[in-house]
């Protein structure tokens, strides 16, 4: 199928102002002391060179966000609601360009990218409406003549750090509640995929201007310098850090942020079990794997990492999944016939290979994939970060893939016998982000849902993410909830006011 794969981010856009390589500090787009390249993972071409800032720039950005907070926190909830709806509208009206940028810097297919842009906009729309539902309480007092009232106030300046796998949605899932609550923000965009953050800020600035709000309510500070980011979670003016990324980095930030008692939200790594019981609808279970295991080529925190299949249904499930995987096509995300794009970098491809090799060396069978895909041009094979989605059977709990998040397109199948075996294997991990299972028995559904140690459970579905559903893990997968009616409170503090003498 004929398609064109852009070679520069600027050329790819129909609305050119969305292309920005600078940071946004103190209400203006500014260049940094250095730049870093942004690579297209399908070709390894450099598609932009983005400003890289130092710790002093983070310090300035934090001061500016603090100054803007004084005005922004006094806006009414209804004004914030209208402003956020306008921002969501602008995202939707530029969805095609945003999806193009997303595919170019992340690699996922244009169809997936368009889905992510709408998913990202849905958080802004959702929190526009949550802004005006920020209710308090009236609590009877035990002291005669007194009554307690609670109000919710913005926590203050928030630091936002997000990963490359969802460069639009992971930013909007944090921006929406922060602005709805009346906070101002300093964003450190993901270094592999910073262009979507800049484009979002172009649209945000348009909404800000139309509503007469301070430009400084948002600061965007890209950097390749890890030391510089430390300023964001050590500076006492920052009252909250919202981080999405790996568990080791999340733990390190939480430790340091504790010195100034910042509020934290940590959306970290996972090792999701995906259980198929004997009484499952096999077609639905395979559909679920396609939606969940292979989303963003397996680079999603809620991706199934371990497929546990009960003995009686095992062979039928494996055969059905294999047939569906044979229809996959790997290549450029701009090719409409492609189902799966490249991985983010070479290290990601190596990790998938490492998990396959380890499993095979311990007795697992590689039934499909795991190699460089056929049908790509020599240049794509040479430069792009491609791997065929892989299917392993005979996987056991001693293998690396049982403990370690692959974060790639590898479906490892473990066979089990009883419901209790499945629950034990599923929970045998320090992670607790998502878990999935398929069964048609109501008692199993209730029993297993309650016993799985995960913040989110999908029953008879592989799709659990949505603006209205509380998103977040337990155990070492993090703390806090994003989206949903609970997400706003993460950016607020509750103040109790006792009025006496009444
Ligand atoms: N739970 C969730 O909602 C969720 C969502 C997406 C990704 N993830 C997890 O993220 C991981 C993959 O993303 P990644 O490889 O980009 O993670 P990462 O932790 O390396 O990076 C995440 C972000 O933190 C920044 N960062 C890296 N080191 C830092 C440091 N020392 N100090 C401050 N910031 C630092 C990065 O530049 C990036 O912006 C996976 O484990 C995945 O499960 C979790
Ligand atoms: O990668 C993690 C976030 C993806 C999602 O919101 O479903």
TrEMBL record:
Record's keyword terms, sorted: Oxidoreductase
UniProt keyword annotation of Oxidoreductase present: yes
GO MF annotation, one: succinate-semialdehyde dehydrogenase (NAD+) activity
Record's signal peptide: none
Aldehyde dehydrogenase domain: residues covered: 30-497
Enzyme class: oxidoreductase
Keyword Metal-binding recorded: no
Catalytic residue positions: 267
GO terms of biological process kind: gamma-aminobutyric acid catabolic process
Membrane-spanning segments: none
Catalytic activity from the UniProt record: succinate semialdehyde + NAD(+) + H2O = succinate + NADH + 2 H(+); succinate semialdehyde + NADP(+) + H2O = succinate + NADPH + 2 H(+)
Source organism, top-level taxon: Eukaryota
Entry EC number(s): 1.2.1.16
InterPro entries with a match to the protein in the record: Ald_DH/histidinol_DH, Ald_DH_C, Ald_DH_CS_CYS, Ald_DH_CS_GLU, Ald_DH_N, Aldehyde_DH_dom, Aldehyde_DH_Superfamily
Associated pathway: Amino-acid degradation; 4-aminobutanoate degradation
Protein family according to the UniProt entry: Belongs to the aldehyde dehydrogenase family.
Protein name: succinate-semialdehyde dehydrogenase [NAD(P)(+)]
Organism of derivation: Clonostachys solani
């Amino acid at each position: 199928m004929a398609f064109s794969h852009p070679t520069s981010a600027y050329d790819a856009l129909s609305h050119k102002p969305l292309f920005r390589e600078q940071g946004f500090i103190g209400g203006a787009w500014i260049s940094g002391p250095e730049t870093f390249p942004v690579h297209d993972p399908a070709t390894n071409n450099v598609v932009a060179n983005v400003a890289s800032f130092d710790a002093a720039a983070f310090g300035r950005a934090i001061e500016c966000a603090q100054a803007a907070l004084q005005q922004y926190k006094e806006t009414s909830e209804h004004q914030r609601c209208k402003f956020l709806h306008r921002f969501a509208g602008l995202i939707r009206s530029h969805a095609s360009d945003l999806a193009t940028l997303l595919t170019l810097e992340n690699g996922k297919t244009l169809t997936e990218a368009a889905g992510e842009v709408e998913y990202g906009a849905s958080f802004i729309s959702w929190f526009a409406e949550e802004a005006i539902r920020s209710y308090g309480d009236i609590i009877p007092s035990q002291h005669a003549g007194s009554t307690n009232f609670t109000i919710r106030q913005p926590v203050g300046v928030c630091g936002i750090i997000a990963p490359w796998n969802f460069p639009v949605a992971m930013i909007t899932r944090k921006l929406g509640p922060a602005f709805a609550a009346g906070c101002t923000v300093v964003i450190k965009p993901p270094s592999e995929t910073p262009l979507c953050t800049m484009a979002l800020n172009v649209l945000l600035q348009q909404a800000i201007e139309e509503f007469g709000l301070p430009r400084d309510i948002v600061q965007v500070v890209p950097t390749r310098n890890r030391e510089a980011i430390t300023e964001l979670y050590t500076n006492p003016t920052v009252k909250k850090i919202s981080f999405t990324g790996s568990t080791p980095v999340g733990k390190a930030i939480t430790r340091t942020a504790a010195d100034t008692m910042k509020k934290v939200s940590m959306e970290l790594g996972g090792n999701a079990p995906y259980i198929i019981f004997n009484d499952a609808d096999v077609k639905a279970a395979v559909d679920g794997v396609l939606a969940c295991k292979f989303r963003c080529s397996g680079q999603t925190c809620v991706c199934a990492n371990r497929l546990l299949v009960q003995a009686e249904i095992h062979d039928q499930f494996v055969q059905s999944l294999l047939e569906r995987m044979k229809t996959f096509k790997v290549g450029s995300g701009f090719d409409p016939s492609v189902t799966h794009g490249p991985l983010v970098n070479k290290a990601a491809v190596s990790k998938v290979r490492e998990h396959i090799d380890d499993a095979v060396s311990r007795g697992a069978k590689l039934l499909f994939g795991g190699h460089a895909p056929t049908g790509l041009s020599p240049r794509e094979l040479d430069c792009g970060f491609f791997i065929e989605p892989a299917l392993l059977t005979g996987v056991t709990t001693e293998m690396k893939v049982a403990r370690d998040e692959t974060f790639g397109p590898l479906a490892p199948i473990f066979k089990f016998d009883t419901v209790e075996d499945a629950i034990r294997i599923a929970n045998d991990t320090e992670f607790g982000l998502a878990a999935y299972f398929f069964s048609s028995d109501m008692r199993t559904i209730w029993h297993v849902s309650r016993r799985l140690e995960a913040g989110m459970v999908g029953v008879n579905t592989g799709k659990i993410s949505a603006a209205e559903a509380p998103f977040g893990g337990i155990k070492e997968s993090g703390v806090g909830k994003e989206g949903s009616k609970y997400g706003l409170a993460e950016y607020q503090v509750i103040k109790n006011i006792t009025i006496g003498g009444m």
